[in-house]
Amino acid sequence: MKRIYLDYSATTPVKKEILEEMLPYFTEKFGNPSSIHKFGRDAKAKVNEAREKVAKLIGANVNEIYFTAGGTESDNWALKATAYDMRNRNKKNHIITSKIEHHAILHTCEVLEKDGFEVTYLDVDKYGSINLEDLKNSIKENTFMISIMFVNNEIGTIQPVKEIGKIAKENGILFHTDAVQAVGNVHIDVNDLNIDMLSMSSHKIYGPKGVGALFVRKGTRITPFIHGGAQEKQRRAGTENVPSIIGFGKAAEIALENLDMHIDKLTYLREKLKDGIMNNVSHVIYNGHPEKRHPGNVNLCFQFIEGEAMLLSLDIVGVAASSGSACTSGSLDPSHVLMALGLGHEYTNGSLRLTVGDFTTEEDIDYVLEKMPVIIDRLRQMSPLYEQIEGGNN
Ligand SMILES: *Cc1c(COP(=O)(O)O)cnc(C)c1O
Description:
The chain contains 14 helices and twelve strands. The chain is α/β, with parallel strands linked by helices. The strands form three sheets. A seven-stranded mixed beta sheet has the order 2-8-7-6-5-3-4, with helices on both faces. A three-stranded antiparallel beta sheet has the order 9-10-12. Helix 2 packs parallel to helix 8 and helix 3 runs parallel beside helix 4. The protein is globular, with a radius of gyration of 22 Å. The structure holds pyridoxal-5'-phosphate.
């Protein structure tokens, strides 16, 4: 059966040219970058080449990029590596974040709260945007960090990052952003945006899983995350995941080269998918910001349907989608992001995230648009509530 993948925000396939770049570094070029000999030097040079490519994608300096094991580690590190240092040196213990962050941020904040830190979770409006006045009003004497995600992974909303950076700078507060969904999907310049720290992940931009990076602006103090050898300027010890770092670098290079084309293509497919569903299905709402959003993200709530039932029905006809974030599927809790938008259970229960990517075709969208109304209609026929509302009309 034809399989259509519409879950690019969960992960992406590794592009062929990226895999090819990685392969020699598993076998004949297997050196440890810390070794003095030729094998080691070759690996080290290639890791630094990858560092340059990753830096270039976000307008950073090569020395400001630290490789990690992915977006989750970068988020953990950004918060923890500053929190304890700030408390010890400056008696500052307050973090400002939002209610719609990825769990890598939210669960890290919860741990810090248990350890005596204070966290403000900003509300968002119906589009999922934070309010800048709220942000200003929540700043206190003891605030050391603002951590607000760049692009939301469930509803795709892009936050006013430049304005947040300006507010942080004016108040002498560090600004960290989880940009895992933004990197490779929007133009980013960390200097223009006044970002001090930025998390990214390779497997969301067609690179391998288990590798990512944290950008740390020059002059920003952070304590080491993993202790051991002298790798990553003694801040993140452990022998480098050389093939994956090389793959990540290649992914960053391709992402930058194709950025405008990629954005145009995804936006076109997203609009076609969104319009096709909205025009042919009733009792559905489109979540997230109408314009300021991830180019490939469609997030919908269907009334009178269980999201899980919809995912299973789509899977049967070969369509891979998500109910929101990869981390919440499998649990019956409603998405914290959709709840923060102020949606009731009648909507959040029927949520669906469809994310298009570089290998999505127009035929894929046509196929989904053909199948979706049929699936939704069938599922709704089983809903007693739907019967009550629509029964009289038929
Ligand atoms: C995927 C994702 C992460 C986690 O990144 P991993 O590399 O999978 O650990 C963090 N934040 C956001 C917004 C994400 O989409």
